[in-house]
Design goal:
The complex is a heterodimer of chains A (113) and B (114). With 113 residues, chain A is mainly β. Chain A has no helices and nine strands. Chain A has strands at 9-13, 18-23, 31-38, 45-50, 55-56, 61-64, 70-75, 84-92, 107-112. Chain A has a five-stranded mixed sheet, with no helix packed on it. In chain A, a hairpin with a 5-residue loop joins strand 6 (61-64) and strand 7 (70-75). The radius of gyration of chain A is 13 Å and the shape is globular. Chain B is mainly β. Chain B has strands at residues 5-7, 10-13, 19-24, 31-38, 42-50, 53-57, 64-68, 74-78, 87-94, 104-105, 109-113. In chain B, strands 2, 4, 5, 6, 9, 10 and 11 form a seven-stranded mixed sheet that branches. Chain B has a four-stranded antiparallel sheet with strand order 1-3-8-7, with no helix packed on it. Chain B is globular, with a radius of gyration of 13 Å. The model of chain B has no long low-confidence stretch (mean pLDDT 94). Classes of the chains: A mainly beta (113), B mainly beta (114).
Chain lengths: 113, 114
């Protein structure tokens, strides 16, 4: 699985968009980009995933560059409850992969009031 | 529907003892994975079970083992506990046979070894 690189921490003002970057320069053609987050002392929570097209759901948007070497998770209107560690993971595209998550160190997003 | 349930939530054990943790996946999910989270090593993949068979394994010593039952419930066992085994143990479930699905995590079992 491709290695991902994320900044260790970021701040965001409440109500503003939070843009969390992720580099995955060695990603292969059949690896998906998944995002999870972990609020303190809770189990990780799935946010979104994509292959090459931009994706949006009720929680966030995922923008993947055309060369697929990096992506950005966008939380459109961050709230204090979005304070968490955000993990970007590259996963092979087969059934067993989606439950074999290799977590990096993630980005601690601190939403400020 | 009910989420992933892990029991117990908290556990204190003594060095040298063994411990068994339980995980009940979401109904219909056939894949269960286990993770260890410590402040020093972060979230690390232990193993994954699908249809009662271990399908993937992380880089942990043989003291860490698991199994899955026919109803997809899973247990993990740690024998000869060491102080370094103190951690949050998380379980996650997916449908298993499908691609592009997300994993659902339980709240974890906090194990303290004294």
């Amino acid at each position: 699985d491709a290695k991902t690189t994320q900044p260790p921490s970021m701040d965001c003002a409440e109500g503003r968009a939070a843009n969390l970057p992720c580099n995955h320069s060695t990603i292969s053609g059949n690896e998906y980009v998944y995002w999870y987050r972990q609020i303190h002392s809770q189990g990780p929570q799935y946010i979104i995933h994509g292959l090459k097209n931009n994706e949006t759901n009720e929680m966030a948007s995922l923008i993947i560059t055309e060369d697929r070497k990096s992506s950005t998770l966008i939380l459109p209107h961050a709230t204090l409850r979005d304070t968490a560690v955000y993990y970007c993971i590259a996963l092979m595209n087969y059934g067993g992969a989606t439950n074999k998550l290799i977590f990096g160190t993630g980005t601690l997003l601190a939403v400020q009031p | 529907k009910a989420g992933v349930t892990q029991t117990p939530r908290y556990l204190i054990k003594t060095r040298g003892q063994q411990v068994t943790l339980s995980c009940s996946p979401i109904s219909g999910h056939r894949s269960v994975s286990w993770y260890q989270q410590t402040p020093g090593q972060g979230l690390q993949f232990l193993f994954e079970y699908f249809s009662e068979t271990q399908r993937n394994k992380g880089n942990f010593p043989g003291r860490f083992s698991g199994r899955q039952f026919s109803n997809s419930r899973s247990e993990m066992n740690v024998s000869t506990l060491e102080l370094g085994d103190s951690a949050l143990y998380l379980c996650a479930s997916t449908r298993g046979g499908q691609r592009n699905t997300e994993a659902f995590f339980g709240q974890g079992t906090r194990l303290t070894v004294v």
